[in-house]
Amino acid sequence: EKDEKKGGGKGGGELTEKQAKRKALMPFVIISLSYLLFTITDGSVRMIVLLHAYNLRFTAMEVAIMFCLYETAGVFTNLLAGVAGAKWGIRFTLLCGLTFQFVGLGMLYGWQPSWTKGQGIVYVTIAQMFSGISKDLTKLGGKTVTKLVTPEEKQGQLFKLVSWITGFKNSLKGVGYFIGAACMSAPLPGPLGGYYLALGVNVFLIACAIPWAATGLSNDLGTAKSKNATLREALFSGNHNLNYLSFARLFLFASRDFWFEVPLPFYLRAPACEDIGKPCEAMGGGEMGCPYGGTECVAGVCQNINTG
Length: 308
Hints:
Blueprint lengths: L1 H54 L4 H29 L1 H20 L7 H32 L6 H30 L8 H24 L14 H5 L4 H22 L1 H7 L11 E2 L5 E2 L5 E4 L2 E4 L4
Helix pairs in contact: 1-3, 1-4, 1-5, 1-6, 2-3, 2-4, 3-4, 3-6, 4-5, 5-6
C-alpha cells in the first residue's frame, strides 16, 4: 500500500512538473504565434499598397514616399519600445503593436481612387506610419521572449530559438507577399474587390492574434527587475562591437530597400518595350483591349499602364 501511495505521489509530482513546464513555455508559444501571424500581414500589406498604388498610376518615387514614414517610425519605435517593454511589460507592447496594425489596415480601407495623388500620398503615408510603429512594437516581444524562457546556463538553446524565430519570420513575410499579391489578383466583381479582400484577410489574421495575447500573458512579463537602461544609454552604447553592428545593419537594410522594395516590383510589372505601341485587339464582349501585361488601350494603341 505504501508503494502504491509512493508511486501515486511520484506520478502526481511528474504531472505537476510537466504542467509547470508548459506554463513556463506558454508565453513563448503565444508571443511567437502572434509575432508570426503579424509578420504575414507585414509582408502582405507592403504588396497591397504597392500593387494598388501601381494600378492607380502612382510613380515609383511617389510609392517610395508612401513608405518613408513606415521606416522612420520603425527606427524611433525601436529606440522607445525597449524602454516601454521594461516598464509596462511585453503584453502591453504586443497588444499596442497589434492594435496599431489594425489602425493602419483600417485606414487603407478609406483610400479612395478619386483622390488626387497628393491626398493619396499623405493619407497612405500616415497609414504606413502606424504599420511601422506596429512592426517594431510586435517584434520586441518576438525577439525578447526567447531570452525570458531560456535559462542562463542554456545559451546555446537561446541561439537556436532565435534562429528558428528569425527563419520563420523571414519565410512567413515572403508568404505574406504571396498572399497579398494573390488576393489583389483575385477575379472579384468591382475594381476594388481584390483590394478589399486582401485587407480583410489581414484584418482576420490580426484578429486571431489579439485574444491570445490579451488573455494568455501576464502584465509583468518582461518588466525590468532592476534599473532600466535610459534612452541615452541605449542610443550611445559603450560597446563598440554593438555600435559597429548597428552601423553595418543600417547599410544592409538600405541596400536591400534600394533595389527590392519598390524598384524591382515596378520593373517586373512593366510591359515589354515591343508591346507598347501595338494596336489594340478585340477582347471578350467585342471591346477593344490589350492582351499584354502592364498595358491598357488608349486611342486604339497599347500604352504602359504606369509610366513611373
